[in-house]
Amino acid sequence: MDRVKASGLLPLAPITYLYCNKVLVSAFVERWHPKTNSFHFGFGEMTITLEDVLYLVGLPVEGLAVHAEVHSKEDCVALVHRCLGVTVAEASDAVSCGGVELHWLKNTFMNVGDDATDERVDYCARAFLLYLLGTTLFVDKTGIRVNVSYLALLSDLGQVRTYAWGVGALGFLYRQLGQASRSHVKQMGGYTTLLEAWIQEHFPMFQHAMNANYIEELPRAACWQSHRETKSATTVRYCEMLDDVQVSQVVFDPYRERRQVVADIALYTGCICCMVVVEPYLPNRVLRQFGLVQLVPGPPLAPLRGTRGSTSATYSVVYQYTDALWQNWRDHMLHEDKRVPIKPGISWESHQDYLPWFRRVSHLKVARGRGDGHNTESAEERTAKALVVVDNCLSGTHISPFEMKNTLREVQRILRDQDAAHLSTPGPSSGISFTRHSQRNQFT
Q: How far does Cα 245 stand from its chain's mean position?
């Protein structure tokens, strides 16, 4: 227990919800857009931020990237053999599809007595931490297996707490939400406790009963009781509620009374990673969640290559990323001229140009029979949209080469109208297991 407590991950066990409210999660998955990594509503965008991770589940968002190179089955077998102390033959039998089954971890390492050697205790501690990660932060869609590559970060138990586990969990959840938004994907992984807690903090209409034993020292996720969906609740009904939700019904900044200033790292702009998964993190699209006026954002980060097909197998997107970029996150923060504080007493202020822009580039309704329909644009309309992207970029007082390059990529994509054919297959999901209720275009 001393080794496990020293990792900083043990608090995950008591705050993780026993049940997942699949209907509620499905309704929000309907509104997710992997290109912007945000939920789209009638009043604009919202997303799970690094600040949300910090307050909701108490995970560190500063530190080393959750990143390790583990490629082949031979690498996985060698990692299991070295870190868990089983024979090479046992490790080879246990490893499949890059992971090991959770019940194998439990059955093999659950018994450790007081007379165990320090080496055996280390093996069991690593096995428990891997089991914990596989049942909380990094749940895969099978629900029975955990990727063994995380063992590379558990090999030195004294260094486990130096990793930014909260960043890795958010990047992994972003990717799972992106895959779940495709039309033929039936299941979703990721840390749904983080997602459900985020929903309850920001959307009071969906709040569950509060935990009577909650104290302020605990992460906010512990404030809400785990709750399965009721028989009367349907994804269609929740989608209609979200279609109609008003900006005054949303709590954009639930942590205002608990903090003095926004943590700098929450305003980092760039990519975050979880092993081989790399996803954009774009706080400029959700400035109201930081107590700032929402401005018209620039174009989202363009991937180096990839497709967002209608199935998990055809969903493959690669963004530019190096650990050095993350370690120097202070050099990639939202620029000061984009941080305009909201007026006192107002929690949802946006620039006068924001909503007209958002209504042009997004779909405000997703429930079946209430959407905008398929948007076919003429060449003139695409040209006008491209000019808006350029104008937004040039209107900033600080334009980095990186921002300019992404602007040019976005303009190229719009003018060529490649989005539908190359980077998106319309069709967000609506259930875990999912049932489709809408077909949308990809957003700018």
A: 22
